[in-house]
Amino acid sequence: MVEKFDLIIVGAGPGGYPLALRAARNGMKTALIERDEAGGTCLNWGCIPTKALLASAKMFHKMKHASEFGIKAETLSFDWTKIQARKNDIVQKLRTGIIRLLEKAGVTFVRGDARLKSNNHVIVNSATEWQGTAEKICLAVGSVPFVPENYKNDRNVFWSSDEALSAENIPETLLIIGGGVIGLELGQVYAEFGSKVTIVEMMPQILPGLDTATAKRLLPVFKKGGLEIITGQRAENLCKVSDNEVKAEINGTPRSFAKALLAIGRKPNLSVFENSGILPEMKGNFIAVNSDFQTSIPGIYAIGDCVPGPMLAHKASHDAAVLAAKFHGEKKSADYSAIPACVYTFPEIAWVGKSEEQLNSEGIKYKTGRFQFSANGKAMTSGEADGQIKVLASEDQKVLGTVIWGPEASNLLSEATMAMALNIPAHEIPEIIHPHPTLCEAVAEAFENLLGTGVHG
Ligand SMILES: Cc1cc2nc3c(=O)[nH]c(=O)nc-3n(C[C@H](O)[C@H](O)[C@H](O)COP(=O)(O)OP(=O)(O)OC[C@H]3O[C@@H](n4cnc5c(N)ncnc54)[C@H](O)[C@@H]3O)c2cc1C
Fold it and tell me: Catalytic: which of 427, 434, 436, 456?
């Protein structure tokens, strides 16, 4: 039997499932197809499992420093199996929540591998074949780790983030190729629990995209935390020696590690097109879309990681909200001018808007305001006084960018993001009463320092 819908969505990640909920609540008869689990990469293999493991690592790290708070915790140990179980439990609970929401909204949730039969017909291979037609099909198919061909069959030693998130043991040594967000977050987890971690990044700095001065400043901080970080170098001739040994040449020196994590990027998951005879116009590896998220194939839309733009969960959800509004007849367009980027290491790192390098290269004049967490009461009392907030604004007070490293950087960034998104001028931010003592006072003080009115700066 072929079921008829208004909208069929392929992929239940942070792009696909919010689109399904919004469309169904707006009265569209909606089907959502997922071959893995509700929540997509973000919930099952990305944002949430990494943050659960990082939370355990951070707790362990803090307990190692308990004596600084006057607390004796002398026989510390950890149970990796329980840490993994906690992570799995959190993921499971959130998944169940999504499925309940889908049921409540009346979304038909189909499990299985979707293939396009035409621009309005989808076939799903599961235990029993399912077929659906719809005037509108949205591909929210996300992305998969990029693992070069010669390492694909040895995922036991050449890990992607998927294997690193579900490993049963902590390897004695771990080579991480790629000093981006995933490499640093997972590197810190493994280093905290005892692995000797070496991160090799071919670019001159870690976290390409982050303001250069901050990236430089953070290198010794991460090194102090136990990570060996080598920038401006490639790991060459990576090969397997045994199930517990890989070799690579770094800076001309042969080195040996128990496992290698390839954190070198992700690529769109295009399996929905396999054997379909349908291939939309592409932009590089990504599905090209216009400002209405329409692909070159009439009736087929695409959002999230599979289309050009930052590969982030909140960007995918923003796409979903805009597309749902468009389907509902509202005049909305995606605005990517203030997309926050966050790294949930300890210390956390977060930035939005333009960096100083970008502003300089674009010839844009700007003022800078800084505030150190070492002058913030709440950061001091929490024992997290390392870090800085840097805000950038134009001569006429338009907030152009912000970079924060330190406690709760990802949460603190929202004030600056809001100022950028809503065009709130720099001088209005410190005029808002910020509670004391809080970390967010530091944001207000950075803006005061930009204006030259700071009392502590
Ligand atoms: C280790 C890691 C950590 C991350 N941490 C963060 C973070 O902290 N913050 C952040 O913003 N982003 C983070 N990301 C990125 C984030 O996970 C993605 O940007 C986000 O999940 C993209 O959402 P999406 O809906 O476009 O695709 P996805 O979440 O990838 O979902 C797509 C879904 O489509 C399904 N699918 C694909 N093809 C088919 C098919 N043919 N049939 C049926 N189903 C199909 C897939 O199984 C998948 O579940 C992280 C990623 C990784 C790997």
Answer: 436
